[in-house]
Design a protein that fits this description.
The protein is α+β, with helices and mostly antiparallel strands. Helices cover 16% and strands 28% of the residues. It contains five helices and eight strands; from the N terminus they run ααβββββαααβββ.
């Protein structure tokens, strides 16, 4: 499948967040390919978005990658233990990003199972199978995405996104998750997901 190019990411986060649905996130590690369809995203609109790390023009070492060019990975920790994978959007100097919240496993299901639960996929319970990648921290653990990949070029060959298979689907817009501190921004419907997909984290 065709790799998404820099121009794809050089757009408003609200556009990219929806355009990423159905695309395929790929992690190449130790000669193996893990891939999963993106089924849920959240847009973060930068300086004017009270839920964004760059709100108000905040510029720290943590968020610096968002101020760079489009098409790079922004990976950060929440609760000191869970990684979150974001795609940097817009041109250099405009710190927007899209959080990938959930994916549907495609290739390497067994390896993802080992990464997440330390056991082969044929030993997973029904709940564990459904919970393999249905959240930002879960998908990062399954696909081995951590702080070492912060700033990774998504047009490279270790972590990248490909075109999907163009199967039709309906996009649902909803409130973002876990941002109650963000005042009016907590009610913005800037989370997008594929309707009826079992891997969506919050319906």
């Amino acid at each position: 499948m065709k790799l998404l190019d820099r121009a794809f990411y050089n757009r408003d986060s609200l556009i990219v967040a929806q355009a990423l649905l159905g695309k395929v996130l790929v992690r190449e590690i130790d000669g193996q390919r893990l891939s999963a369809k993106i089924v849920e995203t959240e847009a973060y609109m930068g300086i004017e978005d009270k839920a964004a790390h760059s709100y108000g023009g905040k510029r720290t070492q943590r968020v610096e990658v968002m101020y760079g060019g489009p098409g790079f990975a922004y990976v950060f920790l929440i609760y000191g233990m869970y990684n979150c994978f974001n795609v940097v959007t817009r041109e250099e100097g405009t710190p927007q990003a899209v959080l990938v919240r959930a994916v549907e496993p495609m290739e390497g299901f067994n390896l993802m199972s080992q990464n997440r639960f330390n056991k082969p996929s044929n030993q997973l319970t029904k709940t564990q199978k459904k919970g393999l990648t249905n959240g930002p921290g879960k998908l990062c653990k399954a696909l081995v995405i951590d702080k070492c990949l912060n700033g990774e070029d998504l047009c490279g060959n270790r972590l990248y996104i490909e075109e999907g298979d163009y199967e039709p689907f309906t996009i649902v817009a909803a409130k973002r998750v876990g941002i109650d501190y963000a005042e009016e921004a907590k009610d913005f419907k800037w989370r997008f997901y594929i309707k009826d997909n079992q891997y969506v984290s919050v319906k």
